[in-house]
Structure formats: structure tokens, C-alpha cells
Amino acid sequence: MEASAIVAIPETEVSAKPTRRRFSAQEKRKVLKEADACTKSGELSALLRRKGLYSSYLSTWREARDRGELDALAPKKRGPKAKVPHPLEREVAELKRALAKSEARAKHAEALIEVQKKVSELLGIQLPKSDEAP
């Protein structure tokens, strides 16, 4: 009997979460240069298949290049731009909160005064007028 050789099969590495492909400005310029050099029928589609690109990439990269945007070919961060807060906005917000709190306290105090007036009327107690001293 012959001894069989054990062949090690490498494990396939698959990432748990796929990552978005990003192209540097240099890579984009290189692909655009190659795409512009394609003159025969089918060369451009062969280039796109070989590089694994969509034709929409080429169109957006060409538009950015034609507009003359130097940074347009560099990868961009996704999502909304970070808003830098104005230094006075925090102070304005604090003052608004303080004003709302004091208005609420004043409204509460006025309601208490009205209740005291009604109770004094019911009990027949004469309260001093607001212009008189107590």
C-alpha cells in the first residue's frame, strides 16, 4: 500500500463585513487615461471588466476632471459635514432656558396670588391693596 500525501487546503478568508472600495486620485487618473486611449470597439468594456469598474464611475470621474476639480478625484468622506458651533450659541441656549424657567416661576407665583385672593374673599379677610403698605 502507498502512503497518501495529505494536502493542506488553505482556508478562505472572507471578511464579516464587506468594505467599500476606494480609489485614490492617482488610480482614477490612471484609469481615465487608459479609458481615453481605448479607440476600438469593445476595448473600453474590456478595460472596465478587467478593473472591475462600472461605467458610471468613469462618467463621474470624467465630469470631475472636466470641471477642473483637483480634489474631486480624491475619495470623499460620506455623510453630512460636521457643523462647527458658534461660540455664542451655547450661551444663547442657556439664557433661553433660564428665561423659560423664570417665566414659569412667575406664572406659578401669579397663580398662587390669585388663589390667596380667592381664599381671602371666601373667608372675608381684607387684604391690603397693592399700593398700600401691609
Largest sheet: none
Distance between the termini: 121 Å
The value of Rg in angstroms is: 38 Å
Q: Summarize the amount of helix as a percent range.
A: 40-55%
Give, in order, the helices and strands: HHHH
Number of strands: 0
- The number of helical segments is 4
Briefly note the structural class of the backbone: mainly alpha
The oligomeric status of these chains comes to: single chain
Strand percent estimate = under 5%
Q: Looking at the structure, what is the overall shape?
A: elongated
Description of the molecule:
- This protein has helices at residues 25-37, 43-51, 55-67, 87-123.
- With 134 residues, the chain is mostly helical.
- Among the domains are: 25-73, no CATH class; 87-127.
- The mean pLDDT is 83.
Compact summary:
The protein is mostly helical and 134 residues long. It has helices at residues 25-37, 43-51, 55-67, 87-123. 1% of the residues are buried.
SSE blueprint:
Blueprint: H1 25-37, H2 43-51, H3 55-67, H4 87-123
Feature tags:
134 residues, 4 helices, mainly alpha, elongated
